[in-house]
Design goal:
It contains 13 helices and 15 strands. Strands 3, 4, 5, 6, 7, 14 and 15 form a seven-stranded mixed sheet that branches. The protein binds zinc ion (ZN) (2 copies). One zinc ion (ZN) binds next to α2.
Amino acid sequence: MKAVRYNGVQNMKLVEIDKPQAGPGEVLVRVIYCGICGTDIHAYRSEGILSPGTIPGHESVGIVEEVGEGVTCVKAGDRVAVGPPGDCGHCYSCNTGHPNTCAHAFPNTLGIGPGTQGAYAEYILSRFPQNELFLIPEGMELEQAVLFDLVGVGFHAVRRSQLRLGDIAVVFGCGSVGLSVVQSAKLAGARQVIAFDMKPACLERALTAGADLALEPTAENLQMTKEKYLSHEGGAHVCFEAAGNVHALYGCIDLCMPNGQIMSIGSDPNPAQIRTAALGPMEYDLKFSFTYTKEEIHQLFEMICSGKFRTDIFTICKAPLEKAEQMIIDQIQGRLDVARVLLAPEGC
Ligand SMILES: [Zn+2]
Ligand SMILES: [Zn+2]
C-alpha cells in the first residue's frame, strides 16, 4: 500500500509498504481522510519531534476494514475516527481520569511514537482499538469528524479552566486552537470573548466563531481593551494563550484580573520570563492544558452532530497522499492558509 514516510527534517517521501493485517484484538481501518496537524508541520522543519522511519498521521477517519479475533468495540464497515490520546490505560494518570497526561501516551500514539505507522497511508492498524477508535455518530460528516484533534485541544482547555457563566475571556491566538477556545468559551457562558491575533483573516474567523471583539495585539489595543472593557473587574476572568509564543503569555498576564486565571495552551520551546514579585500579589492562577480526553471527543461529536458546535469556521482543503510534503511546505511558506489539509489516500 501507499504511505508517506518521514525520513528526517525536510524529508518526506511516498513509499510502498506492506498492508498491515488485523491480528487478535486489532482493527484495520481504511483511511478516508488524515489531517496534517501542526505537530506534523513542526516535525517536518525541526529535529527531535518525529523519529526517521515514522509514518506520520495521528488524526484520521476511515472505515473499519477488518477486525481481529476478540474485538467487540467496532465491526467491519463502521465509520471511525482514529487518533490520540494514545494513553496506556494503566498508569496513575490514566487511572485517575487524566489520560491526556499519560507519560506513555506520546510513544504509543500512532503517527507520533517512534517507528509507528500513522495514517499518512491507505490503511492504519489499531492495536488498542478500545483506546484509539471513536465511532462517528450517524449524521456527522467524515470531514467534520476528522477535525477532532484540532477542535479537541481548545475544548479541553476551556473545560479545564474555571471560566463561569458571565465571565470575560480573552484569547490570544486565533488559529485553529484559538478559534475552538473562542467558540467553547462562548458556549460555556462567557459574557464577552475578546480575541487577539496579528492576521486580519484570523480576526475575521474569530468573529465568526463568536468573539465579541477581535483585535490586533498592539500596545494601544491592549490599553484600550483594559480601559473600555476590563475596567470594572480590573481585567479578564480567564486569559487563554493559544498562540504558542511568550508574548501572548505576557499579553495574558497583562489583561488578567487579580485572582484571575491564565490558561497556557500553546507550546513554545523558548523560556518565558516571569517576575513573581509582580505576579504574586495578584494571586493569578497559571494553568497548563494539553490535548484532550476520549470523553471530550465523545462530547464534541455529540455537540457537532446536534449543531451546537460549529465546524464550518475551520477551513479545509483536500489533497492526495502524493502531495503530503508539498502541502506541508506550502503551509510553512504561507502559500496555503487553511485550518486543515486533509490527505485523502483514495483521492479527493
Ligand atoms: Zn494533532
Ligand atoms: Zn497511562
